[in-house]
Amino acid sequence: MTTAARDDRQATGRRKLWGHQNRTLWFWVFVGPFVLGLGIFTYIPLGWSVYLSFFDAHNTVTPSDFVGFGNYTAMLQNEAFTDSLWTFLVFSLFIVPATYALSLALALMVHRQRRAQAFFRSVFFLPAACSYVVAALIWKMSIFNGVRFGLANTVLGWFGGDQIAWLSTTDPPWYWAVIVTVRLWLQAGFYMVLFLAGLQRISPTLYEAAAVDGARPGWQVFRHITFPQLKATSVAVVLLLVINAFQAFDEFYNLLSDSRGYPPYARPPLVYLYYTALGQGQNLGLGSAGAVLLALIIAVVTVGQAKWFGLGKKEAE
Amino acid sequence: MRDDSRVRAGRALRLSLLIALAFLFLIPFYLLVRNGLSAESDITSPEWTFFPSSLRWGNVKELFDDTSVPFARSLLNSSLIAVATTLGTLLLASLAGYGLARIPYRHANKVFYAILGTLMVPASVTFVPSFVLVSSLGWVSTLRGLIVPTLFSAFACFVFRQYFLGFPRELEDAARVDGLGYWRTYWRVVVPNSRPVFAAVGTIVFIGAWNSFLWPLVIGQDRNAWTVQVALSSFTTSQVIRLHELFIAAAVSIVPLLVVFLFFQRWIVAGVERSGIDD
């Protein structure tokens, strides 16, 4: 009897530890600190940003003059801001397809390469460890230097080409070649890894079935088996590429600005915001309005893209 | 027979293409080291050559001796920030991920969506209001201001939650039979059996923290609070540039990262595969 009673008491003790009454408490012990921090450092700034965007706030974080949607209309009528959106658009039209094609091609080649596969994967992935600041330095001061000692101009010289002032001329806009290649180098390897993961999940029986059906290895198999099977990966890659392009800051800032400041062209939205909010004017109200607009645009683009690709269905499950 | 030779030709073509691309991908690293170990005249020479005329290891010493450049200080700052951010993120995000995955709570889904929702708002768009908040706390140009706001990574939390959802329940049941509560089960059973995911997330967070630029640029206004990236950037945009010093500084700045990266590469790949972003 007594042992049974003790067992019983132990059982209740255990049930208490794992039981219903303590779960809420333990949930918050685990999740609480994270949620609290996220609230303070993400939700509060977000809310504050929306609040500040309705005020005139120069050089101050405690606004006084309510201006309603004044900052928003000023921002949308500001040519520099709309130009920055065009810059983003042009940039993503270059970088999204280029990165997509290069990373998929690398993944297909590395996947089929048996010997030294790990070596090639590491080499293509290695730039992912490099910062945009360092990469921009190499591109600006060594490869695409406008004067004669740059590598690109040296190579052009071998083929009898004329020297190009890569970063200091807007017409023709050679700086796009510099900006696009630096990002391509830095991020292609990362997306290649995503594609490699996708390729590994394709069942070999599909390829066997295709061979039985007489599909020729190469283009036909790629078009009818590999590419459709990679659809989920492709969607994720394109989404990430667009979101990341929207956030471009580091390479633009480091490639184009110098001791005289930033040139008036090729300012993506974040660079523009940086100078508006934290530049000489410290116009935090206007900067906040720009940040809110940008967040809204990113949200609309992301949700639109996800809907278009039919991603929402999976999350609803 | 003809097919056979065609396959072989295809293979050779692919291999040579891969070698050519690998060469292109490695050139920037080579240039970094080449210029860093050259005399300045070798970098700016109009007659550019693949190999510099001499290797100058003294450049490293010159960099650290140069008092006009707070390079050693910025290395120290970056190290402190990267280590603290990595440890803090692992602790906070793994606890939250475990709670969300394993502790039944009525509103757990709402909490999860509130966390996921912040992924939609990129951190770089909130830098203006975050700057306002951090400056009103008086944290501008402090390590606190550089570290604390970055500790709450929804991405890391998401990866941990997905991982813990797939964690074998039998192991936890064994701990339960031994009378362990959530807290001790977590520390004694779950964490020791989850080293790969901690390594994967930790590596990604470490690299991100070491390489991050916009936030340190905004917050590190005082030279003493510069990170390596901000210091390098300020050299490239300054008027007087000693190119060989700049390049050797950049080369030194990627050494710790390359070590971490090559050592943990396996886990990054596994982490990317497990993060479920392409599922």
From TrEMBL, chain A:
<dbReference type="Pfam" id="PF00528">
    <property type="entry name" value="BPD_transp_1"/>
</dbReference>
<feature type="transmembrane region" description="Helical">
    <location>
        <begin position="174"/>
        <end position="197"/>
    </location>
</feature>
<dbReference type="InterPro" id="IPR051393">
    <property type="entry name" value="ABC_transporter_permease"/>
</dbReference>
<dbReference type="InterPro" id="IPR035906">
    <property type="entry name" value="MetI-like_sf"/>
</dbReference>
<feature type="transmembrane region" description="Helical">
    <location>
        <begin position="118"/>
        <end position="139"/>
    </location>
</feature>
<keyword id="KW-1133">Transmembrane helix</keyword>
<keyword id="KW-0812">Transmembrane</keyword>
<keyword id="KW-0472">Membrane</keyword>
<feature type="transmembrane region" description="Helical">
    <location>
        <begin position="25"/>
        <end position="46"/>
    </location>
</feature>
<feature type="transmembrane region" description="Helical">
    <location>
        <begin position="284"/>
        <end position="304"/>
    </location>
</feature>
<dbReference type="InterPro" id="IPR000515">
    <property type="entry name" value="MetI-like"/>
</dbReference>
<feature type="domain" description="ABC transmembrane type-1">
    <location>
        <begin position="85"/>
        <end position="305"/>
    </location>
</feature>
<feature type="transmembrane region" description="Helical">
    <location>
        <begin position="85"/>
        <end position="106"/>
    </location>
</feature>
<keyword id="KW-1003">Cell membrane</keyword>
<keyword id="KW-0813">Transport</keyword>
<comment type="similarity">
    <text>Belongs to the binding-protein-dependent transport system permease family.</text>
</comment>
<protein>
    <submittedName>
        <fullName>Sugar ABC transporter permease</fullName>
    </submittedName>
</protein>
TrEMBL record, chain B:
<keyword id="KW-1003">Cell membrane</keyword>
<keyword id="KW-0472">Membrane</keyword>
<feature type="transmembrane region" description="Helical">
    <location>
        <begin position="112"/>
        <end position="134"/>
    </location>
</feature>
<keyword id="KW-0812">Transmembrane</keyword>
<comment type="similarity">
    <text>Belongs to the binding-protein-dependent transport system permease family.</text>
</comment>
<dbReference type="InterPro" id="IPR000515">
    <property type="entry name" value="MetI-like"/>
</dbReference>
<protein>
    <submittedName>
        <fullName>Carbohydrate ABC transporter permease</fullName>
    </submittedName>
</protein>
<feature type="transmembrane region" description="Helical">
    <location>
        <begin position="80"/>
        <end position="100"/>
    </location>
</feature>
<keyword id="KW-0813">Transport</keyword>
<dbReference type="InterPro" id="IPR035906">
    <property type="entry name" value="MetI-like_sf"/>
</dbReference>
<feature type="domain" description="ABC transmembrane type-1">
    <location>
        <begin position="75"/>
        <end position="264"/>
    </location>
</feature>
<feature type="transmembrane region" description="Helical">
    <location>
        <begin position="197"/>
        <end position="218"/>
    </location>
</feature>
<keyword id="KW-1133">Transmembrane helix</keyword>
<feature type="transmembrane region" description="Helical">
    <location>
        <begin position="12"/>
        <end position="33"/>
    </location>
</feature>
<dbReference type="Pfam" id="PF00528">
    <property type="entry name" value="BPD_transp_1"/>
</dbReference>
<feature type="transmembrane region" description="Helical">
    <location>
        <begin position="146"/>
        <end position="164"/>
    </location>
</feature>
<feature type="transmembrane region" description="Helical">
    <location>
        <begin position="246"/>
        <end position="264"/>
    </location>
</feature>
